[in-house]
Design goal:
The complex is a heterodimer of chains A (249) and B (192).
Chain A (H helix, E strand, L loop, with lengths): L1 H24 L7 H19 L2 H30 L4 H28 L9 H25 L5 H28 L4 H22 L18 H20 L3
Helix pairs in contact in A: 1-2, 1-7, 2-3, 3-4, 3-5, 4-5, 5-6, 6-7
Chain B lengths: L1 H22 L9 H18 L2 H7 L2 H10 L2 H37 L7 H28 L5 H21 L1 H6 L14
The chains are: A mainly alpha (249), B mainly alpha (192).
């Protein structure tokens, strides 16, 4: 089991190297700076933890995981910025959702810490990690929903970034939850699935970000149309239909 | 336990949405002249082919029922009721599909505008959802009670169908201005 875990760990480091090397080769680092900073930081943490002795590994695993997790939140902001580059309102909405979700989560932590002095989040870091992942998942779901609802074309790079991140975050949530409820018996499975899902995400990113593919440009709206006019007409007419349907016996 | 359920629900929701996200086909270039012409044709076919009021009234005409009940043997009566029920159900399905077409059309065009109003879009989305639910309920009611059991309901549905045509007409009003195809843009032709 330990050998398998090490193979997965090394595979992850290798793919991270490939992604970063390709980013430098194709001059993409500046285009997705937060994302590549995130991958670089995870690579640094992985190499450090791989070389670290067991006591240091145990002491630093969760603090370093939180650092990369916070950078992961930045990746979501970057995804939103690129995907909704031509849709200011949708970008604002996605960001507000993320702010509200993360804000609510930190508020709950603050309230807990204030009213229950004996409660220490550091005592159960997996709990905190799971909550952060849930917040990331909600922000990601908002982006996926909005792109689907408005049929926004997002390009290969962004699609891969969302898919990879989603696979990792989704697996982490389920695994961390099961780990919290099943307990120590689940740890061997968690130690394999957690890095495996990250390697899967890295492979998706490596394929999707092999070359630069910007978000396609949205065609200009037809002349003689304005958004308020379109929305207003649809709203008024829909209201009339509802009035008629309300009379249904 | 609540934490477990919330976490698993979020995790599974993400997994399902990513599955559909990965399978999503590349959207067509909404807003092109070809696209707008196709939208116009789709809505024209809805207006002329399946939604005229006289056709709807014919489907639900009570005098047809009275004639069949008075003149035909029981097996013909049964066949008549079964056929009318199927036609009514097909008609409601078509109305629902018209609402869906309109919804797709609105979303397709709204996305071209950079400054969307979130509150307006939310209200519209809720209205579309309510209308689609109402159509579905109508379908269930027709299935359970038949076309002659609820005449008020049918009148309502007929009015709803007419309104769908009106929305379609209004949503595409700018095509008339542009004059993409003058032969097809005569407003008099689109009255159901």
């Amino acid at each position: 089991m330990k050998t398998l875990s090490q193979v997965i760990w090394l595979a992850g480091i290798l793919v991270e190297f490939v992604i970063l090397a390709r980013a430098i080769q194709c001059k993409m680092f500046g285009k997705y700076s937060i994302f590549y900073s995130y991958v670089a930081s995870v690579l640094g943490v992985s190499v450090f933890l791989y070389a670290a002795p067991q006591p240091l590994y145990n002491a630093l695993y969760w603090p370093l995981d939180f650092v990369t997790m916070v950078l992961g939140c930045g990746v979501i902001v970057e995804i939103s910025r690129h995907v909704f580059a031509q849709h200011i309102s949708l970008d604002r909405f996605a960001r507000w959702t993320a702010i509200v979700v993360f804000g609510s989560m930190f508020l709950v932590f603050a309230i807990h810490s204030f009213f229950f002095p004996h409660w220490k989040p550091a005592a159960n870091p997996a709990d905190l990690a799971r909550d952060l992942r849930i917040a990331e998942a909600i922000a990601l779901l908002t982006i996926v929903f909005l792109t689907g609802y408005y049929r926004i074309e997002i390009g290969k790079n962004m699609k891969g970034m969302i898919l990879g991140f989603g696979v990792y975050v989704g697996t982490s949530i389920i695994m961390l939850t099961l780990r919290l409820f099943i307990g120590i018996r689940f740890s061997p499975i968690w130690k394999i699935t957690e890095p495996s899902s990250y390697v899967a995400a890295l492979i998706i990113w490596a394929v999707a970000l092999w070359s630069y593919a910007p978000v396609p440009v949205v065609p200009a709206p037809p002349p003689d149309t304005d958004y308020q006019g379109l929305a207003g007409r649809t709203r008024r007419a829909l209201g009339s239909i509802e009035e008629h349907l309300d009379r249904t016996p | 336990m609540i934490q477990l359920i919330i976490s698993l629900v979020v995790g599974l929701a993400l997994a399902v949405s990513l599955y559909f996200f990965a399978r999503r086909v590349k959207p067509s270039a909404e807003g092109s002249a070809q696209q707008l012409r196709e939208a116009r044709q789709t809505l024209d076919s809805l207006q002329f082919g399946l939604l005229p009021n006289d056709l709807v009234q014919r489907i639900f005409a009570r005098e047809d029922l009275e004639y069949v009940l008075s003149a035909a043997p029981p097996e013909v009566q049964s066949l008549f009721l079964k056929d009318r029920k199927n036609i009514a159900l097909a008609w409601v399905r078509r109305v629902r599909s018209a609402v869906l077409d309109l919804m797709r059309f609105h979303r397709g065009h709204a996305r071209l505008h950079a400054q969307l109003s979130f509150s307006t879009e939310s209200r519209l989305a809720l209205n579309f959802a309510r209308l689609l639910t109402a159509c579905r309920l109508l379908q269930i009611a027709l299935y359970l009670r038949g076309p002659y059991a609820a005449p008020g309901m049918v009148r309502t549905a007929a009015a709803a169908a007419g309104r769908v045509c009106l929305i379609s007409e209004n949503s595409l009003a700018f095509l008339n201005v542009k004059g993409i195809d003058p032969a097809e843009n005569d407003p008099a032709r689109h009255r159901a």
